[in-house]
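Troubleshooting: if your tokenizer reports a length mismatch, compare your output against this known-good record of 364 residues.
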Amino acid sequence: MPNTCKAAVFMGPQKPLEIQEFPVPEVEPGAVLLQIQMAAVCGTDVHAWHNPDAPFPAIFGHENIGIIAQMGRGVISDALGRPVKEGDRVLFSGTPCGHCYYCTISMPLFCETYGKYGLEPLSDPPVLNGGFAQYVYLKPTPWLLRVPDDVSSERALMSLIGNQTTMNAIERAGGIRVGETVVVQGSGPVGMGALNQAKLSGASLVVVVGAPANRLDLAKEMGADLTVDIADFPEPEARVQRVLELVGDKGADVVIEASGGKTAFQEGLEMVRMSGKYVVVGQYTDYGPLPVNPALIVRKSLYVTGVVASTPQTAIRSLESMSTAVKYPVEKLITHHYPLEDVNEAFRAHDAMEAMIPVLLPNG
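Known-good structure output:
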């Protein structure tokens, strides 16, 4: 085991990430040291890079797959009770405390005490707490999920990217029934996850609205029945009209907002049918006041729900689906691979929409 390793460190808004050396920590009882195999550059990371209020320094990387390098005393199994050993590939997250307000009353996702790997600033002294590094240190009692041998690392990683969150969102909305029509607003990674979950649920027609054209081509390869290119329909009213032409003038049974666009929420309200479901996943950026007509929610008796992330249950089922149910080549959505030293090029490619999903390979 090396004494030090490299990590890409966020040094402030719109500043180049720096490659720095960090000590590889001793593994305490109950903890795990992972060698990062692959870390995705997520839109959340790029948003943080642009955000003037984002805390730094930080090691990004919250969608990762790693190989167990060392296990502390007492670590014997993953979240499903399956034995784990050094050399196993795993997905991971922090472990909720189980007794704070959010764990007991609301959602463990918002636990006040457990660390969110890749989403928090460096501690003092610094600890390897994000996937944009050769190693990540998982604090005692980490949540681990062993990746089955018959699932490639790329497919396993895709269970985290878009899929687990949109699975959670759709379930919170009461699900998609077999034969229903679905519109997905957005053709990025979250939109592709929504597309995949809609097809898994048995939707008879899925329309993906997005851009650029190469992403819509990928959407068709991933099962989209029809697409709407916003370059051909640049005005919101035109997009709504085109969608209604495709799904029927009554509107879609379910609309999933996965774009984060400023006008997307109002458009979605107009695309969904009476008593339909509007599932909002992509509105992560706070744009401030936006023109929205809430009367549509009342007049159309809509069910509207928003989701910020996943749950342990959906993470488990998302990975299982990659092994047993997903028939589309979702690993092709990982379009660009970069060594850790090229992290800034990976960010640029993501920001410019040249890459669908860029990933870092910290250990080559």
